[in-house]
Amino acid sequence: MIPAYSPPASPRAGAWMIALSALLFGLLGGVVKHLSATFPPDTIVFFRNAVGLLALVPFVHRAGLRSLATRHFFRHVTRAAAGLASMYLSFFAIGRLRLADAYVLSYTAPLFMPLIAKIWLKEKIPTHSLQALALGFVGVLLVMKPGTGVFQPVALAALASGILGAVAQVGIRQLTETETSTAIVFYFGLLASGVSALPLAGSWRPVPASLWGWILLLGGLATVAQLIMTGGYRRSSPGRVGPLMYIAVAVAALLDWVLWHRRPDVFSAVGTALIVVAGVLIIHRTQRAVPGLEEPAAA
To answer: How much is the pTM?
Structure first.
């Protein structure tokens, strides 16, 4: 039986951590988009996991090997399966759609997380989360502009990535009840690296020297963002802070504009603004819901 969710120690700190991780994941999408011009998705997935696992070594060294102790290895396997499948679908979509469009669909995870958290973790859905979620969903619709061609087969892959991402993120919340953040990220990196290496056995090719910096950035951003996200879910419920992941969509839209000169239209701009406002409301209302909460740094 899955234990019921217990009151978080610092929901405000968790909200800020999820917001920061979303910012980093948005930047990660820009790196994936850049590498997609040279590598197929399976190669990028492998580098993201393998380099990310190496980037975790200093954290493991600081925390000690005891931090990797686990009582629920099968839960790590389940979380890794959902997360890796989501990653393959997301990277596939990023290489073929506008970055902002791919992220809008991949980051529909917050839409599904409250429902999954209710079914899986027996959590109630807070009223203020429903309000912010509705606002964010309106923003997503404005960015997507249904009926203008964004709904194509590759877009469905991105949407499936969002659903699997929601399963993985709620799985993280469950693991935080018994596992350290280092262990959660380590076992995902270990399992995902091993599985993603298999498709490359017969198709490996040398990496141009000019791209190694981007590959290292890919793994480093992924590891730091994942550690921060895991810490955020340790402090707050997915139903409360999940919508903050919409911030990654706003970052992706900004990168589309600045790096690839794909300026958003009025609907996309308004939709992105609504998504950001929804994230700010989550932080503000979470702070008001817990009077006398400590500052994030103290937490």
So the answer is: 0.77
